Every structure is written in structure tokens, then in C-alpha cells.
Amino acid sequence: MTVLRKVAAAVMSGGVISRGWYSILTGAAMLYVVWLLGPAYDTDAAAPFVGLGLGITGIWCLERGIRVELQRRRSR
Questions:
Q1: Residue 62, Cα to own-chain centre: how many angstroms?
Q2: Which residue has the higher pLDDT, 34 or 74?
Q3: pLDDT score, position 1
Q4: Average pLDDT estimate for 28-43
Q5: If I label 45, which of 9, 39, 53, 60 is the partner at 20 to 30 A Cα–Cα?
Q6: How far, in Å, CA of 22 to CA of 71, rounded?
Q7: C-beta of residue 60 within 8 angstroms of C-beta of residue 27
Q8: How do the domains of the chain map onto residue ranges?
Q9: How far apart are the two ends of the chain, measured CA to CA in Å?
Q10: Confidence class of residue 56 from pLDDT cuts 50, 70 and 90?
Q11: What are φ and ψ of residue 18, in 5° steps?
């Protein structure tokens, strides 16, 4: 995960990916982790709470990223 974070930071600082797309991709990754946690809900007591927290944060990141991208496109 550290390698992916460093690659994403390098790409973003180089101007290849915008802040909006960075947020959208982060939110999508969080929702993917929530989906992967699905089978653990029966066996792990903390999984529902972790999934809920990641799900809320993932949806917030997606919404924020979409809003930033729409504002950027309107300003062009």
C-alpha cells in the first residue's frame, strides 16, 4: 500500500492526475475494501464497524471528487 501511495503522490505532483480524480480513485478503493470485507462480517466482530467507517468515507471521497471535477469542467 505504501508503494501505491508513493506512486499516486508522484503522479499527482507531476500534474498527471487531478485532485478530483485522486479523490474518486481513493473512494473507489475504499468501497472495494468494504466489498472484500463482506465475507468477514460473520466471523469478525469488528468487520461491520470497519466496513461502515470505510463505506461512509469512500462515499464521501467519491462525492467530493465528482464535485471537484464538475466545478473544474464548468470553469473552463
A1: 7
A2: 34
A3: 67
A4: 92
A5: 60
A6: 15
A7: yes
A8: 2-75
A9: 34
A10: very high
A11: -85, 170
For every residue of the chain, DSSP letters joined together read -HHHHHHHHHHHHTTSS-HHHHHHHHHHHHHHHHHHHGGGGTT-SSHHHHHHHHHHHHHHHHHHHHHHHHHHHHH-
d(Cα 74, Cα 36) in Å, to the nearest integer? Answer: 36
**Residues 6 or more apart in contact with residue 25 via CB below 8 angstroms:** 8, 17, 65
Would the pLDDT of 7 be above 90?
A: no
Residues 32, 59: contact at Cβ < 8 Å? Answer: no
- All cell numbers assigned to 34: 468494504
Cα distances (angstroms) measured from residue 9 to each of 1, 32, 37, 52, 57: 12, 20, 26, 26, 20
